[in-house]
């Protein structure tokens, strides 16, 4: 079949590779000039095992299944080791006992961490846990994806947006545009879906060398995280201050650089993680983030592979580790297997 994949982030690229490996004639489109230049790049690059979702067991199960498939496909790009912690802040939506029970029920490895160490402020943190969670080398991942696209024979059509004419050119169309999912659907004459859009800043910071391999998530509520990133830097995240605007509707917009909220993020997080007062702001990634609306109570982050009509389907997801399982579901659609509408 002639297949178009619209959106050249990790999800779109992976879907294109799997379709081409199955013998389909695949063209990969993106309005950008290069692959994996949007949300895939401006990402914490954490491979979630489920620790982040104590209020959504279904998301934890998706993380587990997705990670196995991701490891089989992209294992060369996975960075193991380092020191990853999850800390329960005072006032957390999830108590220490509830979090321990959650980890044990989900079979997640953990070890108690000393909150009296130089990493945590014990007046602000009730408990901390050292966990097993890997991250991704973005540059290695992109190199693997470029290699796989070439080997599979996927044709690239960059700097090109979706048009209604694609319906005549292709037998199947896969929308993998993330923040641009409704923009693409509209161009193809498909129904739109209401989503929660967020304009997000990801500050790039430099920390003293002793913190190079340390990543910490402060949870569960309006807190944040610090994750090892590229070239010895870290990426900072914050549930409130990193989100520069938020709206619910059917229309997104491209990420645009704004005045940085780094100082507000660093001030807030250093109350829990005192060493972040030493963070030097190098720059920021700006990205559009999209989630399902009305999911704040559970923080649910499902990966949805949905048929829009007999020709078009949509991949909607935001966790890198789910890319391979989503690609397999997309291939089932191409091959006319049953897919939930």
Overview of this protein structure:
The mean pLDDT is 91. This protein has helices at residues 10-21, 57-74, 96-105, 138-152, 166-169, 181-187, 262-270, 323-334; strands at 2-6, 25-30, 78-79, 83-89, 110-113, 125-131, 135-136, 155-158, 172-175, 195-206, 214-219, 224-228, 234-238, 243-249, 280-291, 304-307, 312-316. It is globular and about 65 Å long. It is built from 8 helices and 17 strands. Helices cover 26% and strands 28% of the residues. A hairpin with a 4-residue loop joins β16 (304-307) and β17 (312-316). The chain has 341 residues and is an alpha/beta fold. It has 2 domains: 1-80 and 134-192 and 301-341, FAD/NAD(P)-binding domain (3-Layer(bba) Sandwich); 82-133 and 195-292, 2-Layer Sandwich (D-Amino Acid Oxidase, Chain A, domain 2). Strands 4, 5, 6, 10, 11, 12, 13, 14 and 15 form a 9-stranded mixed beta sheet that branches.
Quick rundown:
By secondary structure, the protein is an alpha/beta fold. The protein has helices at 10-21, 57-74, 96-105, 138-152, 166-169, 181-187, 262-270, 323-334; strands at residues 2-6, 25-30, 78-79, 83-89, 110-113, 125-131, 135-136, 155-158, 172-175, 195-206, 214-219, 224-228, 234-238, 243-249, 280-291, 304-307, 312-316. The chain contains 8 helices and 17 strands.
